Amino acid sequence: MHDIRWIREHHAEFDRGLVRRGLAPRGDEILGLDRDWRAAETRAQEAQARRNRISREIGAAKRRGEDIDPLLRQVEADKSAEAQAAAEAARMRAEIDEILAGLPNLPAEDVPDGADESANIELRRVGEPPRFDFAALSHDDIGERLGLMDFRRAGRLSGSRFVVLRQDLARLERALAQFMLDLHTREFGYQEVSPPLLVRDEALFGTGQLPKFAEDSFRTAEGYWLIPTAEVPLTNLVADEILDERELPLRFTAGTPCFRSEAGAAGKDTRGMIRQHQFFKVEMVSITTAEQSAAEHERMTACAEEVLKRLGLAYRVMLLSAGDMGFAAEKTYDIEVWLPGQGAYREISSCSNCGVFQAQRMKARYRPAEGRGTRPVHTLNGSGLAVGRTLIAILENYQREDGCISIPPALQPYLGGQQIIAHHG
Questions:
Q1: In this structure, what CATH number is given to the domain that contains residue 141?
Q2: pLDDT tens for residues 83-103?
Q3: Rounded Cα gap, residues 4 and 98, in angstroms
Q4: Is residue 235 over pLDDT 90?
Q5: Do 17 and 123 have their domain in common?
Q6: What residues are labeled active site?
């Protein structure tokens, strides 16, 4: 959410940021409404002040025995004028808030310009993709040949974009989540949280999914939303709170099911597990100050990268362009893992710095150790990692010619020392 006071002082910068996002400038429109809103507020306050003053004069006139009818008529006129001006101010403020709620965060200065992923910049590649002496299979072919990945029965249960994992693949999914959570909590200092999977409108508004992206989430008949990512409950842990600077940074992690309607993804990744309505993900969230924000973004990205390094998976890190970032982000790094079955790098983590954007929607602030007043916190979020896509990467990168899957050494302790996943009849 954008601060109207900031827009007043940075009109040109605001419009330039919207243009970089591929949107039309809105500064003149918003500031015009803002001037009208403030004028209506002033009229209401002036009418109230007159009414209060005349009310005092009525008392004095009564004591002097004077005719108070003209004063009473003026009080009624001012009362009507105040109500009318207040209603007009409320209407215009609601219009301003509605416009601001639908506008994305502005890109940071070092974010490349561009309309889509074609303008993203590759920052680094880590690890070497495996070379096979046989034709690499995709994860869905591997899983079905193993007898452990069932899309047909999942479709019968729930429709498309669902899967049933059995036996060793179900255990592998669980092992991956536990491995990631152990790494983030034991080595990287994140607090593990088990949050609700159902949230209210306010929580989705706070992180930017509402009102613009309602169709991308699932809603229950009772009005709750299924979380599209644990970013929503984790970030909203500090909503409507004033933190002490000495508490910061706060770092949270959670492994949860996530639910997405994928309304905008018709026809994309219809095969396999790449894009599912339900998937498991380990999320990282940081709450920090403006001064720590950029360094925390680099740190969070490094934490996500370390998961891939420990698993021996080749990947690359991309800096997203202004047109390819998510709604709430001001800067995003995507980590893309190599998938031999597709012969391509695919996103497995997205680490975003949202600056004050979410904090202003959530009313999350902190009290500086020095100085007066409060300031909005900075919020950051990242996948550490998407568990389903990590499982995909292991199946495709650790596949063997005999159809078995080698288990990465880092995961073997979580699977009782098991080293291979073989076919199950």
A1: 3.30.930.10
A2: 888 999 999 999 999 999 999
A3: 12
A4: yes
A5: no
A6: 260, 275, 347, 350, 389
